[in-house]
Structure prediction request, 485 residues.
Amino acid sequence: MTQTRKLNVAIVGAGMSGICMAVKLQDADIDDFVIYESADDVGGTWRDNTYPGLSCDVPSRFYSYSFRPNPHWSRFMSPGSEIHRYFRQVADERGVTPHIRFGAEVTSARFEDGRWWVGTSEGEEAFDVLITATGVLRVPRYPEIDGLDTFAGPTFHSARWDHSISLHNKQIGLIGTGSTGVQITAELGGKVRGLTIFQRSPQWVYPTPNLRYRALTKAALARWPVLNNLGYRFWQTYIENTLGRAAVEAGLNRRLMALLCRLNLRLSVRDPAMRRKLTPNYHAMCKRLILAGHYYRSIQKPGVHLVTEAIDHVEPRGVVTSDGVLHELDLLVLATGFDARAYVRPMGIVNDNGVTLDDVWEDGPHAYRSIAVPGFPNLFMLMGPHSPIGNQSLVLIAENQADYAMWWINKIRNGDIIAASPTDTATKDYNEQMKSALRQTIWMTGCKSWYLGKDGLPELFPWRPARHRELLATPDISHFDVRTA
Prediction:
């Protein structure tokens, strides 16, 4: 390919998506790019989250870049520390790391005179294309509980775990029973002096033993790379045709997964009173489905106490629930999730008409095919609004979105166009189609979850994951406002 225009590209974020985008640029012989990373290491959420029991809930073979399989995963679903090492290794192997500016938080980005001016504390720099790879669940959400700041012991969010504190001799309070709370419970239950779990609503748990890979298996995968590829495709097919379909289509898959969740609870928890506490009043998969192997076993161990009464307030000695009981604690962990609507925020993005992205998203985040926004030329978002994060591997989503961005970047580099952004009409039509389709999904069956936006609709992709891949594989230039020379 003859390069007719030299491009420079800004990538915001050195997590899984940012590294992926950098590799795609390099594969296209574009080496003039900068990755801005506010932290001092790569890895994004896998760098920030280090809590006990952390692991992925997607099979290891599938939670890998398709272009960089890893035969050395230790388990069926990878521990968080291994995933972090994997992304760091890929960044080093592919020469991405020298392009990263660590400790550089992007505060602003404005489109002016055909270029993006990216601002940090060091000033502004101009780029032809701006890629945001800021992740999905990265900004911790802290609960509004009276007296929380009065607790005498240590208090921290699960994504800001303080490893300087010894746990085994502590009476630990855990607020939250989502994916993080379940993993922490599964790891600490029976291993600490006491664990009190404050549950606002129970979760459906899909039985998923996290088995270790044997040395022979890892050796075979390293010796014959084709086995890695077969494993990747097998688990891709499995995920896309079980959870990928069940979440968005009524039918046998949905009923079967719900049945397995109920059987898991029934067979794992024999005490009727405890089982009632752990039984949700909503359909399986309406909230994010929890995949775990020994959560129910851990929550029934000595020293583990499940509290279902609402929290009234916190005092220096511990948590007081609505029944007036004081639960005395030494340590309080907030497994209360993240701001699912943060996306690029708090970075301020402004187009050449002075319109901010916050203005455009006043009624809720939206985009064209999850990746671009009308009026913001040459801006591409990885893990943007309505990405299929509820039923697909985020690594594959990032690869598909990066490939889509590369299609436009090559158009710009070859001189076919100078700038492009989706039209208001195409974006509106796409979002209306999604809204109509969302009503058939399991996420609309009556539960409250972080999936839901201001309008009460899930901010997720309402079709099978394969359709998202197909939409991004076939860019439609007629859906874009294109500027040419």
About this structure: The longest strand covers residues 115-120. The radius of gyration is 23 Å. The mean pLDDT is 96. The CA atoms of residues 91 and 97 lie 5 Å apart.
